[in-house]
Amino acid sequence: MLLVAAFFLMGQRDPVLVPEVSQHEVQVRQGFVGQELLLFGAVLDPAGRAGQDYDIVVVLKGPSEPIRLREKERFIGVWVNAESSDFRSVPSYFAVASSRPITEIVDDKTAAIYEFGTNYIQLSPSGSFDPEEQRRFAAGLVDLKRRLGLYREDFGGVQISESVLYQARIELPSNVTTGTYTAETFAVTRGRVIASAVSEVEVKKVGFERFVEDSANEWGLAYGLIAVLLSVGMGWGAGRLFARL
Amino acid sequence: MDVYLPIANLSVDGLVIVALGALTGILSGLFGVGGGFLTTPLLIFYGIPPTVAAASASTQVTGASVSGVIAHSKRRGVDYRMGAVMIGGGVIGSGFGALLFNFFRSIGQIDVVINALYVVLLGSIGLLMAKEAIQTLRGTGGSQAARRRHHPLVASLPFRWRFYGSGLYISPLAPLIVGIVVGILTMLMGVGGGFILVPAMLYILGMSANVVVGTSLFNILFVTIATTIMHSVTTRAVDIVLVALLLLGSVSGAQIGSQFAVKAKPEALRLVLAAIVLLVAFRMFLGLFYRPDEIYTVYPL
Asked: What does pTM read for this prediction?
């Protein structure tokens, strides 16, 4: 898709984006407290025209997962889970940064197509068909994820120098899901996306953390036994230690 | 000190978790309860996913009760026969508990059920203990020795066994049922059940007071082992790093607590425990009626 797009754009004599990410692999290991990613690159204009103004929008998305969202409601005074709505593709992480506020760069429709903003994320709701209700649930979900630090918007977070080089810093918090993240970069001019490019970032657990997660998932029984041994051992050890003091 | 928890999938301040463990450890040493009723809500409050909090708290309680069991068994404070019957019940109960957990999760009410259970159980037991302790402190509870041996319902059950340690001649069905109930609660609430077991042994079974704490800890030890295994196989939510941090605090806390316990007045101790239990219950009670911080909850499909 990228190649086709690039070819198409070249033919149009439109600029080409050369994106890069500061690191293509984020290792989650002991002491991981999050990671700042630097998304940078250049906008190349084949016609050699300089000084043309672009806006750059970058979107970093984590692996999607299907979820069920439940809404609490008051029932005879007590807050219980009442209605629910399913979403088939909820990005575990979503961050967007742009060189100017999105409303000044593109119109609503374009923003919705390219997911320029947390309220434009395509969550693929299913189940409930009432659009009003879907909007309410989607807003609730985005708000929840935003307060967990997993959905972010940074309008003005992209710096462009000399109309050629751009850079944006995006923060991955410690509670990110592991998997393949995609970093999409868009060059926009006069309300139109004229070039786009994708690069990938792999977020994975390594070392001991990887081992623990794999063991818990694959050898549940052995993992449980080791957890029991650990706690019995520590309890007994402390008893012995304090008895001597 | 930042520590990354591989199962909970987030980074926490390790010292906070160790301190939390120490707090519950001191409680368990002082009062002979596991302290899980405090660990689980505090972990959830700190941002640990509820399932991980409940599963890991039950593993931590195992460690906190080991040294207590050893200490009590040395001074013959454990009725092994009674304990074994209750453990049998506990294992059956944790199986039921796992089924109930999945059922309530599938209808989406697990968090409401857990909160309501905390309120009802902690509230009633806290009140019971407070009343008892205040009566004893005032000296009006002089009827301690004259109290009835066990609940009339217990006496009506068939097949009687002799439980020498407890000084009882009752049907094993009674402790079995108590064990089942505690097993269910352990699985659902991530607690060892000490705060339910101790009153149940005293007031329902009528066991002699000197074996109650030891036998309770003995039972908790094995029930939490069973629930840890059950969680590891079904929910896969035991975070071993979180467990290790909690244990670090709680095993040392338990030792400190048990040294205090020797010096303090038992009635005063029970009053303090009652106050803590009631405080947790009250907080949970408010949680049911106040508008929650999060209206929406995410369940993976």
From this structure: 0.80
Q: Across B145-218, where does the E strand assignment appear?
A: 161-163, 168-170
Query: pLDDT (tens digit, 9 = 90+) per residue, A153-175?
Result: 999 889 988 888 999 999 999 88
pLDDT above 50: residue B142: no
Report the distance separating Cα B147 and Cα B144, nearest Å. 5
Residue with tokens 């070249």: A10
Question: A1-37, pLDDT tens digit by residue?
Answer: 555 555 555 555 677 888 889 999 999 988 888 899 9
CB–CB contact B248 A234 (8 Å)? yes
Chain B CB contacts of A34 under 8 Å are: 11
CA-CA-CA-CA dihedral for A182, A183, A188, A191, to nearest 10: 50
Residue A199's H or E segment, with its range, is strand A192-205
Report phi then psi at A220, rounded to 5.
Answer: -50, -45
* B82 three-state secondary structure: helix
CA distance B64 to chain A (A): 6
Token output for B264: 């303090």
Substitution target from A177, A228, A236, A242 for chain B, most B beta carbons within 10 A: A228
Reply yes or no on whether the pLDDT at A58 is more than 90: yes
From chain B, the residues in CB contact with A177 under 8 A are: 9
What is the rounded radius of gyration, in angstroms, for the C-alpha atoms of chain A?
23
| β-strands A192-205, B2-5 pairing | unpaired
